[in-house]
Design a protein that fits this description.
By secondary structure, the protein is of the alpha/beta class. The protein folds into 3 domains: about 190 residues, Endonuclease, Chain A, CATH 3.30.870.10; about 280 residues, Polyphosphate kinase middle domain (polyphosphate kinase like), CATH 3.30.1840; about 180 residues, 2-Layer Sandwich (Endonuclease, Chain A), CATH 3.30.870.10. The chain is built from 19 helices and 27 strands. The strands form 4 sheets. Strands 14, 18, 19, 20, 21, 23, 24, 25, 26 and 27 form a 10-stranded mixed sheet that branches. Strands 10, 11, 12, 13, 15, 16, 17 and 22 form an 8-stranded mixed sheet that branches. A 6-stranded mixed sheet has the order 2-4-3-7-8-9, sandwiched between helices. Helix 2 runs parallel beside helix 4 and helix 11 runs parallel beside helix 12. The relative contact order is 0.09.
């Protein structure tokens, strides 16, 4: 038996936190931001909407996948050694409690506070006759013509209910026969969820009414001659995970389009009902959806607080975070206002590390691709695209480059979850413009973030590369925290060329110089470096491991970190979402600290740092510490080589793990404790504000 195997066997069986419950703990941290009175009001409403959106996706994918495996008898991955049905019961119980807390936060904290600030969400019962007249006219002109009440009786079977749509269940009585009938009415999704009660131009004192509230008070006109007995709101969440057997299909796009059509009719996973629903209606819904009691979530109205996203777009800067204006990264700043920025010249001088949104995406990544598209010396552009916007200037630049006769390769990941249809659409637009579009390798998602530009410089081909942690999406780049490295390194150029040949052709290449690439070498490379830190610690040499990821659930990596901790390696884990590792447990992980930081930006970058006996080795890239990232995706980490880049990363760690920054600390019992005030009760600053202050200090006066 090997030493590593023996060490694993000696680790306790309860050494992992359940991944699904850990995800719910992450969403609880989002909810805590909505509950925080120090957070600006519209931002609190935004966090309520983010919580709701997150939970929808959690059920549509994670819970749906777990339930499907239980029903079909497939092996269920679990890292806690418990029966999957027990885990599912815990998920439903915890999620329901969080949704009740979420509803309470809106009803008792955010909604009243918004009203005091002049943003009123009114009920029909509180409106006067004049307001009701205005809204009734709006209803008759813009809503009534598109409503489709559907009866349920022997001649009208129970209708298909689309996922995530709000619905009204309605009971009506026929006065001639005294028979009670049931009808379902879908609340139109193309109409704003919150309707202005008045049309005044002022934004300092506005009133809204929920669309379903307006419709519910006009039901008599939808059922003339019938007596409306009652109505209730409900909403169903369906399994919307997409699975394709790629080995069995000849056309991936056609197979994916069929699967997307099937997604609409996935089985119900969760039924949300208003807490005033009668038993008769509930029994009908449970029977027709074929769900069990634990899948029913009884909640106070309003259901579906995703609708708050619309309110957060109000022009009320006094109710938002103070604006942060991204600066241009110093190497990309022109020497004078009249000088045209030249990204190639800047990158040729030395490697450039950018940190979004503190440093501008548009004046770095976007400018780089746009300059490549028009530069006559650029011969070829290769790029991976996982998520981007349909009107993206990145896509427009690739099309322009192809139309100019350059060789352009776009590797489009059409299996990016919930962006599949959009990706198919603009992949076809790229093909029509003459871009070589490929879809990666069978069985693997291409999640890495790469751009390679080949430029003829005096008869010598130079490789300009960008390797990032985030998507090439200008919109999300303003709210997602990410990093990217620009380089003309010959090593990186060769590595990226090899990888693109693997992705677009039939090359089989596993040897890279500055890259760690999944699924071939990334896991192995991280494990080797963790073991190296353990050897340094045993020999009394400087050691240390610092990992920043969106999620950490891979058991092999976690066990390696436990073993490193046990021989004295200090381990810092910075995780936004799921965290299955236990921190600070005597005999297991007393040298491990774990932090989670949430706020105005989505912490999205991935950083893997190793002290390495005083010669730090730091990687950034696209990979999280999850099975899917390490085993079933093309992921890339690139090693940073510039000393000042390593210093910037170290500064970021110092800020994130300081006791003087707002963060959540993972406790020994697996719960997260928020520290938002210091020992004297003063509010601690957000990490995002501290990092922006650092970047602003580096900005010369008058620059942007």
């Amino acid at each position: 038996m090997s030493e590593a195997t023996r060490a694993i066997e000696e680790l306790p069986g309860d050494r992992y936190i359940d991944r699904e419950l850990s995800w719910l703990a992450f969403n609880q941290r989002v909810l805590e931001l909505a509950e925080d009175p120090e957070v600006p009001l519209l931002e609190r409403a935004n966090f309520l909407a983010i919580f709701a959106s997150n939970l929808d996706e959690f059920f549509m994918v994670r819970v749906a996948g777990l339930k499907r495996r239980i029903v079909t008898g497939l092996a269920v991955p679990t890292n806690v050694g418990r029966a999957p049905t027990d885990v599912l019961a815990d998920i439903n119980r915890t999620a329901h409690q969080l949704q009740l807390r979420h509803a309470k936060c809106f009803a008792e904290q955010v909604r009243p506070a918004l009203g005091e600030a002049g943003v009123h969400i009114a009920d029909w019962s509180t409106l006067d006759a004049a307001d009701r007249h205005v809204l009734t006219e709006y209803y008759e002109r813009h809503i009534y013509p598109i409503l489709m009440p559907l009866a349920v009786d022997p001649a009208h079977p129970f209708p298909y209910i689309s996922g995530r749509a709000l619905n009204l269940s309605i009971r009506v009585r026929n006065p001639r026969t005294d028979k009670v009938e049931f009808a379902r009415l879908k609340v139109p999704q193309m109409i704003p969820r919150y309707i202005r009660v008045d049309r005044r131009e002022s934004v300092d004192d506005v009133r809204f009414i929920a669309l379903e509230d307006l419709i519910a008070n006009q039901l008599d006109g939808l059922f003339p001659g019938m007596e409306v007995i009652d109505h209730h709101v409900f909403r169903v969440t369906r399994n919307e995970d997409v699975e394709i057997e790629e080995d069995e299909t000849e056309n991936l796009i056609q197979a994916l389009e069929k699967e997307l059509l099937r997604r609409r009719f996935g089985p119900p996973i969760r039924l949300e009902i208003s807490d005033d629903m009668d038993e008769t209606t509930l029994e009908l819904l449970v029977r027709e959806f074929d769900i069990d009691e634990q899948q029913v979530y009884t909640l106070p109205a309003p259901l579906d607080l995703n609708g708050l996203f619309a309110l957060t777009r109000l022009d009320r800067s006094d109710l938002r975070f103070q604006p942060h204006v991204p600066v241009t990264a110093p190497p990309f700043r022109p020497n004078s206002p009249s000088e045209r920025p030249d990204t190639f010249r800047a990158i040729a001088r030395r490697e450039v590390l950018v940190h979004h949104p503190y440093e501008s995406f548009s004046t770095s990544v976007q400018a780089f691709v746009e300059q490549a598209a028009t530069d006559p010396d650029v011969l070829a552009i290769k790029q991976t695209l996982y998520r981007t916007s349909g009107d993206s200037p990145i896509v427009a630049a690739l099309i322009k480059a192809a139309e100019a006769g350059k060789q352009v390769l776009a590797l489009v990941e059409i299996k990016a979850r919930f962006d599949e249809e959009a990706n198919i659409t603009w992949a076809r637009k790229l093909e029509q413009a003459g871009v070589h579009v490929v879809y990666g390798l069978v069985g693997l998602k291409t999640h890495c973030k790469l751009v390679q530009v080949i430029r003829d410089e005096g008869g010598r081909l130079t490789h300009y590369c960008h390797i990032g942690t985030g998507n090439y999406n200008p919109k999300t780049s303003r709210i997602y925290e990410d990093m990217g490295l620009f380089t003309t390194s010959a090593e990186v150029g060769r590595d990226v060329t090899k990888l693109f040949n693997v992705l677009s052709g039939y090359a089989i290449e596993t040897q890279y110089d500055r890259l760690l690439v999944a699924p071939q070498r990334l896991r192995e490379g991280l494990l080797e470096r963790i073991e190296r830190e353990a050897e340094h610690a045993k020999a009394g040499r400087p050691s240390g491991i610092k990992f920043k990821a969106n999620s950490m659930v891979d058991e092999g990596i976690i066990d390696a970190l436990y073993r490193a901790s046990q021989v004295g390696v200090p381990v810092d884990v910075w995780v936004r979402g799921i965290c299955a590792i236990r921190a600070g447990v005597p005999g297991l992980s007393e040298n491990i600290r774990a932090r989670s930081i949430l706020g105005r930006y989505l912490e999205h970058s991935r950083i893997y740092s190793f002290e390495n006996d005083g010669d730090p080795e730091v990687y950034i890239g696209s990979a999280d510490l999850m099975h899917r990232n390490l085993n079933r995706r093309i992921e890339v980490l690139v090693r940073l080589a510039e000393r000042d880049h390593l210093s910037r990363i170290e500064r970021l760690w110092d800020l994130a793990f300081s006791d003087d920054v707002s963060a959540w600390h993972l406790l020994e019992d697996g719960t997260w404790q928020r520290r938002e005030r210091d020992d004297e009760g003063r509010i601690l600053p957000a990490l995002q504000d501290l990092v922006f202050a650092d970047r602003a200090e580096a900005r010369p006066r008058g620059s942007r």
